């Protein structure tokens, strides 16, 4: 029912067509599912269901009646031909049953298919003189009763409208005006009347008698035309906004990416989508790269052209290209439509985003500058770098301390015995104590 917008009648007709087809889209059950409802309850009245059921029964009956008529005509025609009683068409010379033939005012017989093709060609030229096609140069017209037999309902209505319009033109009535949206015409005696009200049930449009457009009162014709030009400009701007704005494929929540990869997660329904193709995805299998791999454009990067890139080289350029393409397409569509509005290309000019400048390259002293090599004018002044040599190992000479004199040994020991620790340190540095 979801595919039929939850309508009962279209769902029933679709299931009926599928059940009559050779390849069923489902496997029929061997036995019906037992009902879980026990006892009898009062059925609720659903007006929508009853109206669709009534329409469905009428349609099924009409389709069955039409099928029976077609089958009867086919059997009747086969019987006529088998018995040699078929009549020859004066155009295609085929044999048909008498009830399949139409005739001009002089009695020349033609099959309905030939008469209908000739009539549709004449109506395409807005001509209503449907004349005989016999090879005897007969110019007798087909009667109205015969025309109603071989023309379809749509072609018959067109025939009457064209014929009525030509008769009104020949009459030359004063004050006669026609609807700008259909063939309806009438006489308006009040010259102060500003609106034309079409009474054709298929049209019923109220239009302005001056500019021949839909009713725009209380605005003047010029004000209405200016508003239409402004609306056309707004359509271009709306197309540009839709090109820049992404929407979740599931909940249609809008978002725009400012950076990062193209794997987007909706913050409303958590649906994963691709920022490039705007479709629902399952994970990183949709992209040509994986996280941690070299990005497209970097050294060692390998990209599958059949998949979307995980990273955008220049996001600003991508947005600018999409917005510009959407604006150009909207302008072409508006200029190609014929709605009686004098819109020129200057009326649809909008400020398009300028492509961003290319990213700056590495400067002097940075990796990758000039391909990693200094210019030749700098290299000729650079002296060759000497090869580093191993430095010689220098062993420092040993330090010898002079011995204390013998007469001072006793005092030395006394000093060492009673001197504080900082004095001992001074003595060990080679300074003799004062006696």
Automatic annotation (TrEMBL):
Domain RING-type: 85-297
Residue ranges, annotated region (Disordered): 23-45, 350-371
Pathway(s) served: Protein modification; protein ubiquitination
Keyword entries, A-Z: Metal-binding, Repeat, Transferase, Ubl conjugation pathway, Zinc, Zinc-finger
CDD domains (alphabetical): BRcat_RBR_RNF216, Rcat_RBR_RNF216, RING-HC_RBR_RNF216
Cited InterPro entries: BRcat_RBR_RNF216 (IPR047545), LUBAC_E3_Ligases (IPR051628), Rcat_RBR_RNF216 (IPR047546), RING-HC_RBR_RNF216 (IPR047544), TRIAD_supradom (IPR044066)
Keyword check for Zinc-finger: yes
Pfam families: Rcat_RNF216 (PF26200), RING-HC_RBR_RNF216 (PF26191)
Composition bias, Pro residues: 353-365
UniProt keyword annotation of Lipid metabolism present: no
Any one Gene Ontology molecular-function term assigned to this protein's record: transferase activity
Official protein name in the record: RING-type domain-containing protein
Protein species of origin: Dacryopinax primogenitus (strain DJM 731)
């Amino acid at each position: 029912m979801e595919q039929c917008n939850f309508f009962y009648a279209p769902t029933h007709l679709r299931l009926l067509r599928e059940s009559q087809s050779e390849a069923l889209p489902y496997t029929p059950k061997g036995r019906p599912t037992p009902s879980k409802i026990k006892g009898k309850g009062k059925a609720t009245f659903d007006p929508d269901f009853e109206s669709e059921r009534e329409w469905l029964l009428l349609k099924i009956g009409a389709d069955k009646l039409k099928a029976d008529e077609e089958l009867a005509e086919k059997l009747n025609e086969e019987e006529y031909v088998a018995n040699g009683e078929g009549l020859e068409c004066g155009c295609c010379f085929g044999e048909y049953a008498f009830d399949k033939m139409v005739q001009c005012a002089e009695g020349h017989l033609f099959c309905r298919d030939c008469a209908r093709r000739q009539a549709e060609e004449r109506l395409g030229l807005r001509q209503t003189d449907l004349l005989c096609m016999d090879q005897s140069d007969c110019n007798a017209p087909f009667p109205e009763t015969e025309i109603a037999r071989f023309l379809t309902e749509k072609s018959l209505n067109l025939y009457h409208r064209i014929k009525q319009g030509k008769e009104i033109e020949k009459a030359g009535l004063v004050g006669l005006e026609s609807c700008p949206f259909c063939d309806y015409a009438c006489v308006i005696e009040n010259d102060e009347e500003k609106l034309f009200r079409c009474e054709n049930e298929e049209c019923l449009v109220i239009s302005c008698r001056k500019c021949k457009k839909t009713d725009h009162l209380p605005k003047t014709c010029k004000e209405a035309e200016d508003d239409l030009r402004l609306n056309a400009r707004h359509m271009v701007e709306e197309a540009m906004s839709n090109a820049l704005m992404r929407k979740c494929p599931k909940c249609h929540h809008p978002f725009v990416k400012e950076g990062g990869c193209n794997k987007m997660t909706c913050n409303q329904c958590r649906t994963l989508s691709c920022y490039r193709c705007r479709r629902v995805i399952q994970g990183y299998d949709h992209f040509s790269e994986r996280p941690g791999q070299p990005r497209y454009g970097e050294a060692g990067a390998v990209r599958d052209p059949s998949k979307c890139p995980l990273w955008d080289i220049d996001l600003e350029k991508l947005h600018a290209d999409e917005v510009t393409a959407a604006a150009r397409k909207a302008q072409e569509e508006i200029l190609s439509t014929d709605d009686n509005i004098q819109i020129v290309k200057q009326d649809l000019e909008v400020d398009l985003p300028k492509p961003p400048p290319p990213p700056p390259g590495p400067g002097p002293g940075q990796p990758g500058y000039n391909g990693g090599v200094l210019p030749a004018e700098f290299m000729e002044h650079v002296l060759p770098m000497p090869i580093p040599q191993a430095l010689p190992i220098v062993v420092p000479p040993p330090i010898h301390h002079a011995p204390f004199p013998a007469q001072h040994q006793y005092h030395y020991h006394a000093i060492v015995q009673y001197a504080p620790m900082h004095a001992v340190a001074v003595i060990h540095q080679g300074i003799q104590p004062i006696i």
